[in-house]
Fold this sequence. Notes:
The chain is of the alpha+beta class. The chain is built from 3 helices and 7 strands; from the N terminus they run H-E-E-H-H-E-E-E-E-E. The protein folds into 3 domains: 3-49, no CATH class; 54-92; 94-140, SH3 type barrels (Roll), CATH 2.30.30.140.
Amino acid sequence: MSIGFINNFLYFLTASSVSIGENVITGGADSESAGAAVQGVSEAVTSASGGGFGGFGIGGMVLYIVGLIALFYFFAIRPQKKREKELKTMQSSIIVGDWVMTTSGFYGKVVDVSDSVFVIEFGTNKSISIPVNKNEILGKKEPDFTKSSTSNNK
């Protein structure tokens, strides 16, 4: 709410006539006292608000924004960079013979490694070899062939 609006509202209340039931109260009889009242209330509102920024001033507002940016960095950006670094380290440590899982959920065995591509054997017949970009590997995982795919084996 702006100070101008408050001043105009207070002036309206003190300078106009207000009817309450059958009585009429006029506030415009003494315009000097009404102006002084508006001025006093206006100064009180301005000093209580601390400059319009909730009592903090411009320095407090800047400090608040810097604090929000720091929180965002420590809770969003930094952990994401740490995960990316761990993923790159894991992808660079994969060697021939490792079982890997791709981003699409397929398990395969690495049969060849180049700078940016793994050649992976998919399936149990060992005849399907597909080149896969290193960025598409989620982790070193060997599939568990012992678990049943259905839970209703009664």
